[in-house]
Each structure stands twice: as C-alpha cells, then as structure tokens.
C-alpha cells in the first residue's frame, strides 16, 4: 500500500495520459491546418466553418461566428462556407446531433449578420431542419438538448420565411454592431488624444460649471467622479496655475527708460539745430 501511495503521490504533478493525448491531438490538428493553408487552396474562413460545425461539445463562440459572417460577404468565401453548411445539413443523424446543432447556430448568425442571399440559399434545407424538431435528448446533467434543438430549428424556419422577423433581427444586429464600433472608436479617440481645452457648460448636482479653454498640458477634470467641493478646489488650483504661467510670460509692451528718452530727445534737438 505504501508503494502504491508513493507512486500515486509522485504522479500527482505530472499530466495524465488523457491530457497528454488531448494536447498531442490539438498539436497535430494545428499542423494539419497549417499544411492545408500552405499546400491547398483552402481559406481560413473555410477552416473556421469546418471547426465551428463539427461534433465539438462546445458551440462556436461569438468571435468565430463574427469572422465567418464577415468572410461571407466575399464571393469565394461565401461559396465555400455555404457548401460546408449544405453538407452538414444534407442529412440529420441523431447520433451526431451536435453537428446539426452547431451548423444551425452558424446558419442563424449568417441570416442575421451575413449577406441577404443567405435566406434564399438555405430554403432547400427546410425539410431537414423540420426533422430536427422531433429530436429528443437529455444529457447526464439533466439538460434538455432536444428542446434546445427544437427551438433553434423553429427560429431558423421563421427567419427563412423572409418576413418581418428577419428584417427586425437584421436591423437589430446592424444597430448593435454600429454601437459597438462607435464605442470602440470613441475609446480610441479619448485614450489617444492629448490633454486639450474644455469649452462648454456642464451641470453637477444642480451646480452650473463654466469650463474655460485650457491649452497647457493639464489633467482633465472628471465631473462625474468628484464632489462639488473637490471640483471647485481643482478649478481654483487650475486657474492659479494658469495665472502663474501668464505672469512668467514676457510682457509684450516694452518698458520705457525715462533717462534714455531724455537723451534721445536732446540728441534730436541738437541735430535739428
């Protein structure tokens, strides 16, 4: 018993055979993907679609779906993506139900985020999608995958009708995408810009604050994270700093020396005489 315990304790830090096998499989898959990209005419979007619609227990994430829908606007990638999805949906196999489920996720995202022609493209797959509605499966954790697949297939069938639901979902997806892009560009502008002047009127707790333009390199004041007392104190310090800088600037008006003025006046008088 002591020998077994020592062996088990010594192997606690080492990776198990299952983990080693998983890492080796991932390594070989990556090498195969690289070789296909170099030696064949396969595209990255095609590889993404193949991986997203395989029997992986994990559904494709948002980033993968976004890359696929963006690539679908290119004619060559569109043809490759659609061909893969048609092959996945040509027949519904209950043993490989995850392939069909992941394929429906990609089709749904293409319907709402991809080209408008997707709705016409997958009309030929309606019969197979309807068959998925009768699927029943509950896993060992108690999750009803059959219900999830039925809801997904029913939603896609409604989107394929090309009615108001499809238009609403596409408009919603477009507004959401524009909002995210606008927020990202706003963050880039605010983070990349240097300290500039603030001009305008803002209110804080009923207090009206007039901000004057400041051209020197000072930190901006965040109104939303300051109380009124702290804000007024910072404004006073900022105005004092501005006055100090102005006092250090050389005066534009020349100081007149009275003695020099008298000498100049007498010299001009003697010259005239």
TrEMBL record:
GO biological process assignments: endocytosis
Cross-referenced SMART domains: ENTH
GO cellular component, one term: Golgi apparatus
Subcellular compartments: Cytoplasmic vesicle, Clathrin-coated vesicle; Golgi apparatus
Keywords: Cytoplasmic vesicle, Golgi apparatus
Location, primary (coarse class): cytoplasm
Name of the protein in question: ENTH domain-containing protein
Lineage start: Eukaryota, Viridiplantae, Streptophyta, Embryophyta, Tracheophyta
């Amino acid at each position: 018993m002591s020998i077994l315990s020592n062996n088990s304790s010594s192997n606690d830090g080492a990776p198990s055979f299952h983990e080693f096998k998983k890492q080796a499989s991932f390594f070989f898959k990556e090498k195969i993907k690289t070789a296909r990209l170099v030696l064949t005419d396969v595209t990255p979007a095609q590889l993404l679609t193949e991986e997203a619609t395989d029997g992986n227990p994990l559904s494709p994430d948002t980033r993968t779906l976004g890359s696929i829908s963006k690539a679908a606007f290119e004619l060559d990638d569109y043809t490759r993506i659609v061909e893969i999805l048609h092959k996945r949906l040509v027949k519904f196999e209950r043993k490989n139900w995850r392939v069909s489920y992941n394929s429906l996720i990609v089709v749904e995202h293409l319907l709402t985020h991809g080209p408008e022609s997707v709705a016409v493209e997958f009309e030929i797959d309606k019969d197979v999608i309807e068959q998925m509605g009768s699927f029943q499966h509950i896993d060992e954790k108690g999750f009803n995958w059959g219900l999830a697949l039925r809801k997904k297939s029913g939603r896609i069938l409604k989107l394929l009708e090309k009615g108001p639901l499809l238009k609403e979902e596409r408009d919603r997806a477009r507004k959401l995408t524009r909002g995210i892009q606008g927020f990202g560009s706003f963050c880039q502008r605010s983070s990349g810009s240097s300290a500039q002047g603030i001009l305008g009127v803002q209110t804080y707790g009923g207090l009206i604050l007039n901000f004057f333009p400041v051209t020197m390199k000072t930190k901006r004041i965040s109104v939303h994270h300051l109380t009124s007392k702290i804000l007024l104190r910072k404004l006073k310090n900022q105005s004092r700093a501005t006055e100090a800088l102005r006092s250090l600037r050389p005066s534009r008006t020349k100081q007149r020396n009275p003695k020099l003025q008298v000498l100049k006046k007498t010299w001009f008088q003697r010259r005239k005489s």
